[in-house]
Write a structure and sequence with these properties.
The chain has one helix and ten strands. It is of the alpha+beta class and 175 residues long.
Amino acid sequence: MKTKVIWGVIVVLVAVIIALVIIWQKTDSTLTQTKSQLDQIKSQLDQTKSELDETKSQLDQTTSQLGQTILFSLQVNPDYSPISPTTTFRPNTKRIYACFKNEGVLANLYKVIAKWTNQTNKNIIDWQTFPLTPDAKYNHVWVKLDNWDVGKYLVSIYKQSWDVEPVACGEFEIK
């Protein structure tokens, strides 16, 4: 009887050991698969980061090609330069000036096309031709509204030509 009990315990212990070995092998296999999946995800993230770095580089290059910064203000000086430039305005602001230097791709132009877009709701606020003063130090375009929607705005300046790429851009916000 004692022998049968011992053999019974041995059989149970062997079964438990076999079960533990199977569980360990499955766990090890699952861990290996998980590590492989994580390595693939890391590789994809590295590739995405590389693509984002390339996109940022292209954006930086485009920005430097534009070469113009638009400054925003509520008033302009006699030379059309901005008075107290800012990028934040209130909704009840009546008129916002977008000022830019008369140099580079914007030098000596008689007209430009200005597009004012509310980036928050994707509405085009204004899109029109503005006369410029070719020999001025600065030039400006402006929009007058009774009430501005809260959000971020983009102003794009285009030369009057077949080229549809903006030659100057700037952003401001209504808070």
